[in-house]
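We treat protein structure as text, and this decision shapes the records that our systems exchange. Because each token names a local backbone shape, the row as a whole describes the fold. For reference, a complete record is included directly beneath this paragraph.
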Amino acid sequence: MAYATIFSRCLITAALVFPAIPAGGPWDKVPQEWSLSETYQILRDSPWSPAKVKLDAIYTQRHTDPQTGIVSDSPVNPQDTKPVRGVEISRSKPLPSISVLWWSSRTIRFAKQRLRQLRSQTAPAQPLRADDLPDYVLVIEGSETLRILRDAREDLHDTVFLELDAGTTVDLANVRFLDANADEDARTEFHFLREIDGHATLDPNSERVVFHCKATAKNPRPGRRNSLSLRAEFEPRTMRAHGQPDL
């Protein structure tokens, strides 16, 4: 009985001195072992793909009909009409979701490859490979967002940036538009420099990095989304695979 009491006290002391380490996510497993659900978790709700991307608003570009005075978003004959800029925010239903992926992480690119493996029933599994990229790269997937961003009225170098912990910003270095193919979804890649003047742009131990993106299509299409304004918040200190930073 005395031995059991002493042993119990030792366990309590150990628990206080060495708190339990939370279980890691699927990104701490070998990518070839990821299940379909784990792969989707990495791509949809993980440190590299925050589930709660905030769509701040839908920016609109409307026109006042010179004859009736009615404000309309119709793209028909907008010349010689007074523009009416505004913001639409819906409180009755959620805005459409948009995924922002931290593409330069090897975890995200491994997950994309693993998803193709799991979806293929006949093709033999190929070794997964994801080389380090020279830039930090964030991606928004989807043909509709690619259309808006490629045709943006704004200069994306002015409306796309990273906001750091201290309130400083990292400017967009380059943007690439990639159309869909047999293996890849359409995506827009935003590139940010890893170093500026010999100094690292991001601290892998920082608590917060916010990606901001705003664009309005020059040539709006009726009945479809023609603008977006979003921000996605990442926590670099949690973006670790097998204990190592993965940015």
